[in-house]
Design brief:
Chain lengths: 443, 366
């Protein structure tokens, strides 16, 4: 066996190929040392083999951990996944002894909730499954394993409730997974793109989350969850726009306050998209829209600004976008300095120097802050882009252009489908109890 | 899935302002408009009941499919091409009227054809989507805009300057015999059911049109507000001076505490949205009708990929709209619109009765 394995693999020092003999029998052992728990290999192979308290041959036959691996073609995969191969009496057994390095029961970081479960998914599939199973204790929970990536061979798990899941979605997911052809998949975001299959999209149509409570709730609703090895994020599909606007805490806190928060989120998403465009259209096209005192104060604050409003908007948006980008990418300690310098000093100075009006500074900050209110970061990212097309159309058509632009966005959203389910539909249920529109298949 | 019918109904009854309906009614205010309101409402209600009753027997089937089932191909095709033209005309008229209105109130410096270009591109994009998408857009457009319209109506109704005497004076002309034009204009408000000609395709087999009594009631209330509130605000005489009577009415309202002082702007933006939604739905229906005339065409309600034919057909619609803008002016527009409304009423009466008879001849179980 060892000779064959030596031929299969490139020269590697961490590849262990041993031959042991205890007088009674001779075995060959092969494993990749860094991939395996050395203690487990010692406990299961070397120690019992050397001690000879029980014939090792019998152990191999009786203990279920040893699995017969007589297909030579599978050896390579087995070894790469952290199995040890043992050959005894001409039969090859495999023993799963993988050591998985992962963050130990991590706290939620991306989507935090004050009073929700604080544990996030783990990078280890079994630990994640443990969390999900303990939250969703139902015999109907079905788990399928697939592999993606011709090189990375990333294991993924498809988890769903077999009684509640929509079979069309499940079929759709299965065919999508089997038809994906890539070499490497490392992050849930990558898998998400492959699943959607569209290269250019404005909005995320599957939800990426790290929260086990969100996942269990989604499974209960009949959605499909995809877990991925070495990624602490799971993919939930199908997702609707409203899922992205919904924080898990909305279920945990007082009813009216959470309704108010949801209202607040929709208001802020509207503001962050339209405010710069509205500023341009009101300053440059229709100052008469506002009551006269307000129109005067806006015009007054712009009196020192020597160029048209859209240049002002571009300057400020450039500044705020670079600031946000910098504070995300910088190490945490420097990040706060960048915000202070940019936000406080630059904004104030730009206004005093007469480069931008003070109203514009307010607009910019509202745009930035309102954007952070969106609870799921992938949507928050997508929404950051949406203001620019509106700005362009506002430059040419003013306020009516903004209204038309918003209409086009709504149409685009309504046109999106997440795995065959409508993405932007008010009052729609995933699995309606009575007949729903569009269910009829036309001949 | 009744609410989708409701949306269509409300959309059309709100959009009447864009098709010069109030103006036509105002022109006849001393000559029988009041009685026309009542007769128009009666006609509209009867047609609504007949048509919904007939369509409930054909779940999941649009008008083209129903006609094809019963009639020879050439008859059904010529009928469908006729309806295509009717819908295309109404919606294009609305969008052109709005382009002119934007030009007048918002962007007086931009040429009207440029504004129209922006509007038709947006509508064209929306109309080429699938029927299901169009329905969702209608839903969202109404849910977002209807509260603001109700607010404007409330503002108008609660206006202290609303002169009830003027309203009473006009209401007393109820004894005058109705005119054809204003009856047709009044019955337009109830014509939302005709949208179901296409959108009936989306209806599931077990759907029924429930609570049908709501529609005549709401339609009549909208009709009364459309007609009487401007009279109360402008007075019996001046009300005849305006073409876009409701824009002027909205402009005479004031929001004392808002950012925006003049209700006009709110009104215009809301109506811009509604007009876009209306044009989208009309063009989409016209487009689907054209497609249904192609032999061996399979109707699809939610195709994954937009077929090329959609773009081609809507491209032709856009071109026609431009030609229409260049060839006509507002005065002509209004005249044609009046004739169109009359014509539409008769066509709809024939269509509805025809479909109703066809549906009764069909065994219920089939």
């Amino acid at each position: 066996m060892n000779e064959r394995i030596r031929l299969m693999f490139a020269e590697a020092v961490d590849m262990k190929l041993e031959e042991l003999s205890n007088g009674e029998m001779t075995i060959q052992v092969a494993y990749i040392a860094p991939m395996c728990e050395e203690k487990m290999i010692a406990d299961f192979i070397f120690v019992p083999f050397a001690k000879r308290e029980q014939p090792y041959r019998e152990q191999l036959r009786t203990i279920v951990e040893y699995k017969v691996a007589d297909d030579v073609a599978k050896w390579r995969d087995l070894l790469l996944r952290g199995n040890a191969l043992i050959e005894a009496d001409g039969i090859v057994y495999s023993l799963y002894a993988a050591r998985i390095i992962c963050n130990e029961s991590p706290q939620t970081q991306v989507e935090s909730a004050i009073q929700g479960p604080q544990l996030a998914l783990s990078e280890d599939l079994t630990k994640s499954l443990n969390l999900i199973r303990s939250m969703y204790q139902s015999a109907d929970l079905s788990v399928e394993e697939h592999t993606i990536g011709s090189v990375s061979k990333t294991p993924i798990m498809v988890v769903f409730d077999q009684r509640r899941v929509d079979p069309t979605i499940l079929d759709n997911v299965r065919t999508k997974i089997t038809t994906i052809h890539v070499e490497m998949v490392n992050a849930a975001g990558e898998l998400d793109k492959l699943l959607i299959g569209k290269r250019k999209h404005l909005f995320p149509t599957v939800l990426i989350t790290e929260r086990p409570d969100r996942i269990s709730k989604a499974i209960a609703k009949g959605k499909v969850v995809i877990l991925m090895k070495s990624s602490m994020f799971a993919i939930i599909l199908p997702a609707t726009f409203f899922d992205f606007m919904h924080a898990v805490e909305d279920h945990y806190e007082a009813f009216w306050m959470t309704r108010f928060l949801i209202f607040l989120r929709y208001t802020s998403i509207l503001l962050t998209i339209t405010l710069p465009a509205l500023y341009i259209s009101i300053v440059s096209y229709n100052p008469e829209l506002f009551r006269v005192q307000l129109a005067f104060s806006i015009a007054g604050s712009r009196s020192a600004v020597p160029y048209p409003s859209f240049i002002e908007v571009f300057i400020m948006l450039f500044m705020i976008e670079t600031l946000i980008e910098a504070s995300i990418r910088l190490p945490r300690y420097i990040g706060s300095t960048a915000t202070t310098v940019g936000g406080l000093i630059l904004g104030q100075a730009a206004q005093q120097a007469g480069l931008v009006s003070s109203i514009m500074i307010i607009v910019t900050s509202v745009v930035a802050i309102a954007n952070f209110v969106i609870p799921v970061s992938s949507l928050s990212f997508a929404v950051r882009f949406l203001k620019y097309p509106l700005i362009i159309i506002a430059i040419f058509f003013g306020i009516s252009g903004v209204a038309v632009g918003v209409f086009v966005y709504i149409t685009y959203l309504c046109n999106l489908r997440s795995f065959g389910k409508p993405y932007f539909r008010i009052f729609g249920r995933l699995q309606p109890t009575e007949g729903d529109i569009g269910q009829v298949k036309l001949k | 899935m009744n609410r989708y019918f409701f949306y269509n109904f409300i959309l059309v009854s709100f959009i009447n302002l864009m098709l010069y309906v109030p103006h036509i009614l105002m022109a006849d205010r001393y000559r029988g408009a009041v009685q026309s309101l009542i007769i128009g409402a009666v006609i509209g209600t009867i047609l609504l009941y007949l048509y919904t009753g007939a369509l409930a027997r054909y779940p999941g089937k649009g008008l083209p499919e129903i006609l094809k089932m019963h009639l020879p191909k050439w008859i059904s095709n010529s009928l469908i091409s006729f309806f295509t033209f009717m819908w295309l005309y109404a919606t294009s008229l609305a969008i052109i009227a709005f382009a002119i209105m934007i030009n007048r109130f918002f962007n007086p410096d931009v040429h009207v054809s440029l504004i129209l270009a922006m509007l038709v591109l947006a509508c064209g994009y929306a109309a080429t989507r699938s029927s299901l998408t169009v329905m969702f857009v209608i839903e969202i457009g109404l849910i977002v805009n209807a509260p603001i319209i109700l607010f404007v109506l409330f503002k108008a109704g609660s206006n202290p300057h609303l002169n009830w005497d003027a309203i009473r004076v006009i209401a007393n002309y109820v004894t005058k015999a109705p005119t054809l034009a204003s009856t047709a204009a009044a019955s337009f408000i109830f014509t939302g059911y005709i949208n179901m000609s296409l959108f009936n395709r989306l209806m599931p087999p077990n759907s029924r049109f429930r609570h049908r009594w709501i529609y005549p009631l709401m339609g009549f209330v909208i009709l009364l507000i459309t007609f009487f509130v401007p009279i109360g605000i402008h007075g019996t005489e001046t009300v005849g001076n305006y073409i876009y009577i409701w824009s002027i009415t909205a402009d005479s309202l004031l929001m004392q505490y808002g950012f925006i002082e003049r209700v006009l702007f709110l009104f215009l933006i809301v109506y811009l949205n509604l007009t876009l939604v209306f044009t989208m739905s009309g063009w989409h229906q016209a487009m689907e009708f054209v497609k249904s005339m192609i032999s061996n065409h399979k109707p699809e309600i939610d195709s994954e990929k937009t077929p090329l034919s959609n773009y081609v057909i809507v491209g032709v619609f856009i071109a026609l709209t431009f030609v229409y803008l260049l060839l006509t002016n507002e005065k002509l527009n209004m005249l044609i619109s009046t004739y169109w409304l009359i014509f539409r009423m008769f066509v709809e009466i024939l269509l509805v009765i025809g479909i109703f008879i066809l549906s009764r001849r069909r065994p219920r179980s089939a």
